[in-house]
TrEMBL record, chain A:
Protein name as it appears in the record: Carbohydrate ABC transporter permease
Superkingdom as given in the UniProt entry: Bacteria
Domain ABC transmembrane type-1: 69-259
Transmembrane segments: 12-31, 74-94, 106-129, 141-161, 181-206, 242-264
Any one biological process term the GO annotation gives: transmembrane transport
Organism: Candidatus Segetimicrobium genomatis
Claim: Transport is one of the keywords in the record: yes
CDD domains noted in UniProt: TM_PBP2 (cd06261)
Predominant place of localization: membrane
Gene3D superfamilies: MetI-like
Pfam families assigned: BPD_transp_1 (PF00528)
UniProtKB/TrEMBL annotation, chain B:
Gene Ontology CC: cell envelope
InterPro entries to which the protein is assigned, alphabetical: Bact_solute-bd_prot1, SBP
Function: Part of a binding-protein-dependent transport system for a sugar.
Subcellular location: Cell envelope
Protein name per its UniProtKB record: Probable sugar-binding periplasmic protein
Chief location: other
Automatic annotation (TrEMBL), chain C:
Gene Ontology BP annotations: transmembrane transport
Keywords for this protein: Cell membrane, Membrane, Transmembrane, Transmembrane helix, Transport
Record bears the keyword Transmembrane helix: yes
Organism whose genome encodes this protein: Candidatus Segetimicrobium genomatis
Protein name as annotated: Sugar ABC transporter permease
């Protein structure tokens, strides 16, 4: 590989440098803060590192957030898996059964994407209370599922549009049923679609705060609620909050990095088969 | 004919679905084994409690409360549901949703006054007349405090403390150095601010953090109390004053505007604790804040009486204390009503109030507790004053007299004024708020003196 | 018609059922809740306990009489324009530059870097940004002063007139990574790669390739990005909540935050539901172009 400094390379380097500064600075501040004592933070010298690094903050933070990390992982992964499953089925319906009613459904789903959570918070909690699911993990899982299935269905439909119909037609000739075609062929070809839908749903659920707060119990506290609690309201323990956040981000970041690779590999594989 | 799908070669999707099902199973098991207290049977010795003291000095205060409960009733299993957020912002979300869905906790932290009234109006709290009679609690606490937790003739919650809002904290060493006396009137405050500015041009004499808005209303309240006096203060928040034609309100705004050059300029970015931090870091010399600031200063290593002093502000035309309590009540339909009653008895006792209030920052609700229990001269003096003059207590607008819908909007306007002063516009806006939110109707329950 | 066409139709429906039914159930629940919210906005619910007495447009009239409502609407429009357009353009540039000019390692590094804000709790990144913006000792002003650029220091979110723009900048920062990821993925179809190759052989400049070949062929990806950003910008809540709490005064307030305050702090549930309906109505208007495009594509 030649490493001449072409204008293009220079441009890329400038971009990488600029973005690095903009994105590393906040993380730097987080790290510096996570190693301070609460007193040092109240001095509001955000940029200076602590003179006396408090690595113990991470141990304390991990101990505090561990149960809620488990809660959040269980809830987010379950919701992600179930909503790409339901959304995948629904998306296929939207993409392949072109009836007038489907058109209406499509519009309804698209609008539902814009629904602010606050708008359905009170009826949702009411529903969970009626079904006796409130205050359990199932309550949160079902709530998030209701709220994320439209997103999953729309995204999956968008991906199924790009799956060539010829693939299915040849299988149909072989006498395969729709469900067989869906699971054996379409879903496999649309794997990158599943991956990117999963990423989006996972982010939504993992980062959701308001609903998790509303249905909070000591046993189902999610990581976002915990991160908010850790700081407290009196003497703000930002050091523990930042340490906890740095530990916490590893989960979705790992998920991203793993699926991110999968995402691109899947696209290439799908395209080759097509 | 289409059931062949399941026999399909194991594609990755199917694996995914199986994993999902397993995860759901685990989650279900988890949920089943650890189901929360809210849905359990009524006879269990359990107590589900919502509060907002989650961390920092407040966490220790909550621990002190529960220690007192454990000491008296070791058999009660505590299910704590702490929700963070200053003054209970997030706390109210959880409560609103859970109460209206019919799954209340046994007991929850609430301020007295209008916030309490909103729960009573909703029919979510049991009246506690018999408990009050049994404990003779009405006689144990100041009359204005009893009034603040009594709606329609019935007490609904048990207060465990009183927070005083109108206190001016000052950097004692700086004041001594400059030969200044702590100000107790607006003129003295302005003079002190000018003197500090002259001696320390880099300082902002008066600290303020208006991010949560109510902090700005505190300053305005203190100025208003001096201009109009106690009776005017109560009438104003009862909606009985025509603000548009009220010279006192206008003067208070003008005074606030006069003070502005001496107030920390970037106040919309700071919360109350950060504004007190300005005093500790010598960026400011004074701050108007409630009694909870004492706990904050102490946590920063400042000693009351040595590093910082405190005076009630204003002390003209008379020394009035604006207060609000933290309280607990009994939910209607509480799953564990018996345990809750036991808890409320503990809340009313000195065994809980002494360790909790000393830690958290307020004054004792009970008048029979020795003021000497406080380690600092500031609260010793305040508690002694309250003991001798219980009639000088007025429910503050934080607590509040006026309905909550009004108060929230009023804070925004007050905070907006400190960022961009417009006296005429603000008078008009506030006067409209009083009619828009029907304050006169909503605050009619409040009796003073 | 004949019985056979009936049977064919029945078979089609039975074929579609396993795909459509689960979706329908979820959608029904969601719209049931939405209908409930619409009804609540027409009721007289104020206070903590439900009150479903029909009150007509009472609370809508109340809403349009509030100055705060109009401030919110104005702010929301700013968010929609300035949160979406710059982010999309920037993401397109970054994704394209990464495609054509970056070494593999650098590309992976940058992708991870711009993605973490999406993975991180906004309660936390919001706190960091409020420290960045603090006027006296904040990170940005400290850096500017250290660099001798005192002139460039600013009050950021303290000025009611410009505070919203600083908030939108955080949004761009937060969503850039996701946008880049989606656009990059849509660059990488074999057909598109072949088109780019042949255009390159024809001697087209790289900028030309971007405008004439890539952009028209990744309309789907751009659409996903734009809709995602529109959704997020319209629903924006946490950035405002954490960084300014709507202040100074209510200068940076947005509909979603007011909806929250009205419902849960002021206990004006009917008003809060009305605001939710307004957000929803705006969404409806915004989404029409997307829907038309999607439907056209669907029936082409």
């Amino acid at each position: 590989m030649r490493l001449r400094l072409t204008p293009l390379r220079a441009l890329v380097l400038v971009m990488v440098a600029a973005l690095s500064v903009v994105y590393i600075l906040p993380v730097y501040v987080m790290m510096v803060t996570s190693l301070k004592t609460p007193l040092e933070i109240t001095q509001r010298q955000y940029l200076l590192p602590s003179g006396n690094l408090q690595f113990g903050n991470f141990a304390t933070a991990l101990r505090l957030v561990f149960p809620s990390l488990v809660n959040s992982s269980v809830i987010s992964l379950t919701v992600t898996a179930l909503s790409v499953f339901v959304g995948g089925l629904g998306g296929y319906f939207l993409a392949r059964f072109r009836w007038p009613v489907t058109k209406v459904l499509f519009v309804l789903l698209a609008i539902a994407l814009y629904l602010p959570y606050q708008a359905v918070l009170i009826p949702l909690v009411r529903l969970m209370a009626t079904t006796r699911l409130a205050l359990t993990h199932f309550g949160l899982i079902l709530s998030y599922l209701i709220l994320n299935v439209p997103l999953a269905a729309i995204l999956m439909a968008t991906f199924f549009f790009s799956v060539p119909r010829e693939l299915e037609e040849s299988a149909e000739v072989d006498g395969a049923s729709r469900l067989q075609i869906f699971f054996r062929i379409v879903s496999v070809v649309a794997l990158p679609g599943y991956a990117s839908t999963a990423i989006l749903v996972f982010i939504q659920v993992w980062n959701e705060f308001l609903l998790a707060l509303t249905l909070v119990t000591p046993y189902t506290t999610t990581i976002q609620v915990k991160l908010n609690d850790i700081k407290g309201s009196y003497v703000a323990l930002y050091n523990l909050q930042m340490a906890a956040a740095l530990i916490t981000v590893l989960v979705p970041l790992t998920f991203f990095l793993f699926l991110g690779k999968y995402f691109i590999r899947g696209i290439l594989a799908g395209a080759l088969k097509g | 004919m289409s059931n062949g799908a399941t026999k399909a070669p194991v594609s990755q999707i199917v694996v995914g679905v199986i994993i999902a099902a397993l995860v759901a199973g685990v989650a279900g098991y988890w949920a089943g084994t650890q189901r929360g207290g809210g849905m359990a049977k009524a006879e269990e010795r359990k107590l589900e409690i919502f509060h907002w003291w989650t961390a920092g000095g407040e966490r220790e205060a909550a621990d002190a409360m529960f220690k007192a409960l454990k000491a008296k009733y070791p058999d009660i299993q505590l299910v704590e549901n702490p929700v963070a957020g200053g003054g209970g912002v997030s706390h109210r979300v959880v409560l609103q949703a859970r109460l209206s869905a019919g799954i209340p906790p046994d007991t929850w932290q609430t301020l007295g006054g209008a916030e309490l009234k909103s729960y009573v109006d909703g029919g979510y709290l049991e009246p506690l007349d018999s408990l009050y009679t049994e404990l003779k609690y009405t006689d144990a606490i100041p009359k204005p405090l009893a009034n603040a937790v009594t709606i329609g003739g019935h007490p609904y919650v048990v207060p465990l403390n009183m927070h005083i809002q109108n206190i001016l904290y000052y950097d004692k060493k700086l004041f001594d150095e400059l030969g200044l006396r702590p100000p107790t009137t607006f003129d003295q405050l302005l003079a002190a601010a000018k003197a500090i500015k002259a001696a320390r041009p880099k300082m902002s004499p008066l600290a303020l953090g208006s991010k949560e808005k109510w902090e700005a209303a505190f300053v305005l309240d203190s100025l208003l109390l001096e201009v109009g006096g106690a009776e005017h203060y109560v009438k104003l928040y009862k909606g009985e004053v025509d603000v548009a034609a009220d010279p006192a309100f206008k003067t208070a705004l003008e005074r606030l505007n006069t003070l502005r050059p001496y107030i920390y300029a970037s106040h919309p970015q700071l919360t109350w604790d950060e504004s007190c931090g300005l005093v500790v870091s010598h960026d400011s010399a004074m701050v108007i804040m409630g009694t909870w600031a004492i706990g904050y200063f102490k946590s920063r290593g400042w000693t009351p009486g040595t590093d910082f002093g405190a005076v009630t502000f204003p002390q003209q035309p008379e020394r009035v204390l604006l207060f609000h309590p933290d309280t607990y009540g009994l939910a209607k339909g509480a799953p564990h009503a018996k345990a809750t009653m036991d808890w409320l008895k503990v809340v009313a006792s000195a065994d809980l109030q002494v360790p909790t209030d000393v830690t958290q920052g307020g004054l004792f609700a009970r008048l029979d507790i020795d003021p000497g229990q406080f380690p600092d001269p500031i609260r010793q003096e305040l508690q002694t004053y309250v003991r001798g003059n219980p009639g000088k207590l007025i429910l503050d607008q934080h607590g509040s007299i006026a309905p909550f819908s009004f108060t929230q909007a009023y804070w925004d306007v007050a905070a907006g004024f400190t960022a961009k002063p417009d006296v005429a516009g603000t008078v008009k806006a506030v006067s409209e708020l009083f009619t828009t939110y029907k304050v006169q109707e909503g605050a009619a329950w409040y009796q003073w003196p | 018609m004949s019985t056979s066409s009936h049977a064919v139709r029945f078979a089609r429906v039975r074929e579609a059922a396993p795909f459509a039914l689960p979706l329908l159930v979820f959608l029904l629940v969601l719209y049931g809740m939405l209908a409930w919210t619409v009804y609540t906005s027409l009721s007289d619910w104020q206070g903590t306990a439900p009150n479903y007495t029909f009150a007509g447009l009472k609370w809508y009239r109340f809403m349009v009489g509030l100055d705060r409502f109009w401030v919110d609407l104005d702010n929301n429009l700013r968010w929609l324009v300035l949160g979406v357009v710059p982010t999309t353009v920037l993401a397109l540039c970054v994704a394209y530059l990464l495609e054509i000019g970056a070494v593999r390692g650098i590309e992976a590094y940058l992708r991870t870097l711009v993605l973490y804000p999406a993975a991180m709790s906004f309660v936390v990144t919001g706190t960091i940004w409020s420290w960045m913006y603090q006027a006296d000792r904040g990170v940005l002003n400290t850096l500017l002063r250290a660099a001798g650029l005192e002139r460039l220091t600013s009050g950021y979110t303290t000025d009611p007139a410009t505070a919203t723009y600083w908030l939108i900048l955080i949004f761009v920062w937060q969503y850039l990574g996701l946008a880049v990821l989606i656009l990059q993925a849509s660059f990488r179809s074999v057909e598109l790669q072949e088109m780019v190759e042949s255009a390159t052989l024809d001697g087209a400049s790289r900028l030309r390739i971007l405008i004439a070949v890539l952009i028209p062929n990744i309309r789907g990806g751009i659409l996903v990005v734009v809709s995602l950003l529109l959704i997020s910008a319209l629903k924006v809540f946490d950035i405002v909540y954490v960084v300014t709490f709507g202040g100074p005064g209510y200068a940076t307030d947005v509909l979603a935050l007011f909806q929250f305050i009205a419902t849960y702090q002021q206990h004006l549930v009917a008003l809060g539901s009305g605001l939710a309906v307004v957000i929803f109505a705006l969404a409806f208007i915004i989404i029409i172009p997307y829907t038309i495009y999607a439907l056209q594509r669907w029936f082409e």
